Amino acid sequence: MAEENPRFVSRLTRNTLALILAGGRGSRLRQLTQWRSKPAVPFGGKFRIVDFPLSNCINSGIRRIGVLTQYKAHSLILHIQKGWGFLRGEFGEFVELWPAQQRVAENAWYAGTADAVFQNLDIIRSHDPEYVLVLAGDHIYQMDYGPMIAQHVESGADMTIGCIEVERERASGFGVISVDDQQRVQAFVEKPADPTSVPGRDDIALASMGIYVFNRDFLFEQVVADADMPGSSHDFGKDVIPRAIQRYRVMTYPFRDPHSGAQAYWRDVGTIDAFWEANLELIGVTPPLSLYDDEWPIWTYQEQLPPAKFVFDNDIRRGMAVDSMVSGGCIISGALVRHSLLFSNVRVHSFAHVEDSVILPNVDVGRGCVIRRAIVDHWCRLPEGMRIGCDRAEDVAAGLYVSEGGVTLVTPELLGQTVNRVR
User: Fold this and answer.
1) If you ran DSSP here, which 8-state letter would residue 6 be given?
2) 3-state SS assignment for residue 278
3) Using CB atoms within 10 A as the burial measure, which of 15, 62, 78, 390 is most buried?
4) What is the pLDDT of residue 213?
5) Cα 399 versus chain centre, distance
6) By C-alpha distance, which of 266, 282, 274 is closest to 407?
7) pTM higher than 0.85 for the full model?
């Protein structure tokens, strides 16, 4: 049974404090982050991006979690309050919100990832962890952090970096790591123009996942030193890690599937094209990320909604969804939805056609609309007969954003609509 379920829950995870850095702007997601931070962006039909690292913590047995917020955090804060209040404080379990609050100086917002931790050292000390797990709040993956913490302890590391293998041509968007044959970090370069390849594999580079395990005292020492460092950008990838590898034992933890040993699923949905592709991947018969895994559930705020409904069934109009995921509260009324993902409370009216698209909550698709290769944001009201994704020039002329990959983004603001609701 232990081999079938390799989850690692022990004293190590119970004595670990997780810090989720959830203040990112996510500017490459364009207008999707106009009113919300990247971790608050909806994903997968009913979740938000931040639910994935939070669920990984809970499923790993880490139940002391601080969520560090900054940029346009209101919708993120509401989501955490509504969906993550089930832990028991009397047992020492919590998900705490740590907003930027000028704890060390006036006008001192979080200047970087390391500075965000530095400004909360007094809170971290009050929880007295043995280990501190620092996580990015804006990536999609399912990971048991227990084995990583165990390897960190067994290797005698001061710091361990979670890493994945990526194609060298894509590695310029990551922190790239060079290691020796013991997996000890020899070099770390943030977003290099010419990434270093893995020995013996010229087409592959080793990239940081933005996941770090620290010994508590080592973390304190490093962020305090960084805070006093003239010219530092106070970032783990740009400043703290490159300095640490010169003097301390910094190791890597390759993130692999525990059963097959193959590279595990991990996505940075930081662009419109990546966000669109990662959502539509979920529709496949055997998707690379399963949301139906009972042993590794993704927790979230669960709205109380009626089932999805499909109405009308005659030769003139038929409400149907093919090769799609449709969430609760949706009504497909005499329309066709094909290879698309619909979040909750979407209404698709008669004779409309939605294909290869991601439709976020509370969208109303008018009669006769045609939507192809699009992302439609919260609360959009698409007028009757509107065509989206059918002609790039028409979309641009209408003021919509079209990505390099040809995905059209629609938001209420781009349509000239006013929304008085939190998104």
Assistant:
1) -
2) helix
3) 62
4) 98
5) 28
6) 274
7) yes
Q: Count Cβ neighbours within 10 Å for each residue of 16-44 and write b for 16 or more, e otherwise.
A: bbbbbbbbbebebbbbbbebbbbbbbbbb
Of 367, 387, 365, 368, the C-alpha closest to 377 is 365
State the pLDDT at residue 1.
Answer: 36
How far apart are alpha carbons 18 and 124 in whole angstroms? 10
CA distances from 189 to 68, 141, 242, 270, 397 (A): 25, 23, 7, 20, 41
Q: Which amino acid is at 268?
A: D
190 labelled ligand-binding: yes
Residues paired with residue 401 on neighbouring β-strands, in sequence order: 409
- Residue 10 identity (one-letter amino acid): S
Q: Does 131 belong to an annotated binding site?
A: no
What are the start-end ranges of the E strands in 58-130?
Answer: 64-69, 94-99
Q: State whether residue 386 is helix, strand or coil.
A: coil
The parts of the chain modelled with pLDDT lower than 70 are 1-9, 102-107
Rounded to whole angstroms, the Cα distance separating 54 from 135 reads 10
Chain centroid to CA 1: how far?
31
What letter does residue 91 receive in the DSSP assignment?
G
Nearest to 340 by CA among 392, 394, 284, 393: 284
44 is in an annotated binding site: no
Q: What integer pLDDT is reported at residue 181 of this predicted model? A: 84
The reported pLDDT for the residue numbered 103 is: 64
Question: Is residue 206 within 8 Å of residue 177, measured between CB atoms?
Answer: yes
* Beta carbons within 10 angstroms of residue 291's beta carbon: 15
CA distance 89 to 108: 30
DSSP string, 116-139: HHHTTHHHHHHH--SEEEEEESSE
- Quote the CA–CA distance of 335 and 344 in Å, as a whole number: 17
- Chain segment 51-77, per-residue pLDDT in tens: 999 999 999 999 999 999 998 999 999
Tokens read off for 168: 């060298």
Q: What's the per-residue H, E or C state across 14-75?
A: HCEEEEEECCCCCHHHHHHHCCCCHHHCEECCCEECCHHHHHHHHHHCCCEEEEEECCCCHH
* Annotated binding residue 221: no
Tokens of 78: 């509401």
According to DSSP, the β-strands at 47-48 and 42-43 are: antiparallel
Report the sign of the C-alpha dihedral through residues 78, 82, 83, 84, in that order.
positive
**Cβ partners under 8 Å of residue 114, min gap 6:** 222, 223, 226, 227, 234, 235, 236, 239, 240
110 annotated to a ligand binding site: yes
In whole angstroms, give the CA distance from residue 388 to residue 344: 21
